[in-house]
Amino acid sequence: QVHLVEFGGGSVQTGGSLTLSCKASTFTGGYCMGWFRQAPGKEREAIATIYGISPRTYYGDSVKGRFTISQDMANSTLYLQMNNLNPEDSAMYYCAAARIFCASEGFTRPPTSWGQGTQVTVSS
Q1: Residue 36 to residue 15: CA distance in whole angstroms
Q2: Widest CA span of the chain, in angstroms?
Q3: Dihedral of the CA atoms 80, 122, 46, 1 (nearest 10)?
Q4: In whole angstroms, how far apart are CA 121 and each of 17, 91, 94, 116?
Q5: For residue 117, which of 11, 33, 92, 110 is within the disulfide window of CB 3.0 to 4.6 Å?
Q6: Three-state SS at 109
């Protein structure tokens, strides 16, 4: 099981940007890595996944074109660049991992490792 720690949450105004980071305890080659978010009273939502060096990625419809997932596999770090944020993006953001292949469909099985979450708040 991979230990995951997120960094980079915070508060930003509408239209602003934030970058989240997630440091993994092991080399993430062979892992599907991704980001989820959960707002109060809402279900946890998968927003992006990435796999491999020539990365295969997935984005949820709510973030497509605004968020970019990437990873530095040499440093076992996953990133989520979030642009043009709006209040609907306010949520707890979680890093997740599973030792499976993933591509345009995202996680095909539930992640086996989760970070502790980092809060993102977007004010209007």
Answers
A1: 21
A2: 40
A3: 60
A4: 11, 7, 14, 17
A5: 92
A6: coil
Total residue length of the chain? 124
What tokens does 28 get? 């993430």
For residue 81, the number of C-alpha atoms closer than 13 Å in the C-beta half-sphere is: 6
* pLDDT confidence band for 114 (50 / 70 / 90): very high
The token duo for 1 is 């099981």
Residue 66 tokens read as 């605004």
**Amino acid found at 95:** C
What CA–CA distance (Å, rounded) separates 91 from 59? 17
In this prediction, residue 54 carries a pLDDT of 84
Both tokens of 53, joined, read 């060096």
For 53-102, what is each residue's pLDDT tens digit? 888 999 999 999 999 999 999 999 999 999 999 999 999 999 999 999 99
